[in-house]
Design a protein that fits this description.
By secondary structure, the chain is mainly α. It has helices at residues 10-26, 43-53, 55-73, 79-92, 110-137, 143-179, and strands at 31-34, 37-39. The protein starts with 9 loop residues before the first helix and ends in a 7-residue tail after the last helix. InterPro entries: ECF_substrate-spec-like.
Length: 186
């Protein structure tokens, strides 16, 4: 049985720390695609941590990880984008709430992959819309620059989610599925 998303333990805190550290440390790896925008493979980590540990862990790991990355790369936190990373991970983590979804025990079905895909698409574009509006309203960034960033980041993040995030969660569940039929001989 999966733990509740509200049950906090030492393992939960360590998982958030590891997720944030991994996301923060790997987010600087990317291919520039637009002004201040990159194709970042680290987006797959948001999908993995969200799906395996739930939306709360995903949100906090994404938020803290983005803050870490901002400090490493520029020394300034872009709060709208940091919150956006948390929001994307939280949406991707909604699959965790599905009753019969449990990749740790090898329980994953085609319907879960479809739900995960839908949550990911909504999370990616919802978080980018939030981040873009935050930049326009709070930070005073120009509309046309933000539109280019949202579209290019959205397409790049979708690509990473499709190519790395979804297959990683599916493969993890399938690996665990094959291990559930083992028996102990005495």
């Amino acid at each position: 049985m999966k733990p509740s998303i509200w049950k906090w333990s030492t393992r939960t805190v360590v998982t958030i720390g590891i997720g944030a550290a991994l996301y923060g440390a790997t987010s600087w790896i990317g291919i520039p695609i637009a002004p201040d925008t990159q194709l970042r493979p680290a987006i797959a980590l948001l999908a993995i941590f969200g799906a395996l540990f739930g939306p709360v862990v995903g949100f906090i790991a994404g938020l803290i990880g983005h803050i870490i990355n901002d400090f490493i790369t520029s020394g300034t936190v872009w709060w709208g984008w940091a919150l956006g990373s948390g929001i994307a991970a939280a949406f991707m983590g909604l699959i965790y709430l599905s009753r019969d979804f449990n990749p740790k025990e090898g329980l994953i079905k085609k319907k879960h992959l479809i739900q995960f895909l839908i949550y990911g698409i909504i999370g990616i574009f919802g978080s980018l819309a939030f981040s873009g509006l935050f930049d326009i309203v709070v930070m005073g960034e120009p509309n046309d620059k933000i539109l280019i960033q949202i579209v290019s980041a959205g397409l790049a993040n979708l690509g990473v989610f499709f190519v790395l995030g979804i297959p990683a969660v599916w493969a993890y569940a399938k690996r665990n599925q094959s291990n559930t039929n083992l028996t102990v001989e005495r």
